[in-house]
Specification:
Structural class: mainly alpha
Helix content: over 70%
Radius of gyration: 56 Å
Shape: rod-shaped
């Protein structure tokens, strides 16, 4: 680097050991010579030494870009105004999205509450139905037990009537025999 360009960073170099150094370059060939020749010239075919003050093309592009930015002092103010307006617009858009999201959240919460209430009602109804089913099953069992008892009672009554009839017949036979 020449003394025309001030250094912005202090570049320190560290010495590499032999094990860290890259392998030695391959022996020169036609391709290597051609590459070296091309690297000495920039894209315009002009030698690096022919350029004024040794400036690179990227440096001149940077200078022209900075010069064009510095020409219009109001452009930076307009840019800030434009950026501020865009930021305000973006904030408004985000606020409206936030409000929409909040409204949607309220709507979804109310729907969730309705669903949970329905579920509770259904569970209450199902528990009531479950208890009614249990009561019905208990009553059906009781009815079947009573029907069984009624069958036994009718059998006992018929047996009792038969025994009464036999007893009456035996009493008649005994009274005829005793006369």
């Amino acid at each position: 680097m020449s003394s025309y360009y001030p250094r912005t960073k202090d570049l320190t170099r560290t010495r590499k050991s032999l094990t860290e150094s890259p392998p030695s370059s391959p022996p020169p060939t036609d391709k290597n010579y051609r590459h070296e020749r091309l690297s000495r010239y920039d894209s315009s075919g002009e030698s690096a030494t022919d350029r004024p003050l040794g400036r690179t093309s990227s440096y001149t592009r940077r200078e022209t870009r900075l010069a064009s930015l510095g020409k219009d002092p109001d452009s930076s103010a307009k840019d800030y105004k434009k950026m501020y307006a865009e930021a305000l617009h973006e904030n408004d858009r985000l606020k409206s999205r936030l409000n929409d999201s909040k409204q949607e959240l309220v709507k979804i919460r109310s729907q969730l509450e309705k669903v949970t209430q329905r579920h509770e009602r259904i569970s209450e109804k199902s528990s009531a139905l479950e208890s009614e089913k249990r009561e019905k099953q208990a009553l059906e069992k009781r009815v079947s037990d009573m029907e069984g008892e009624i069958k036994i009672l009718t059998e006992l009554k018929s047996d009792n009537q038969r025994l009464k009839d036999e007893n009456g017949a035996l009493i008649r036979v005994i009274s005829k025999l005793s006369k």
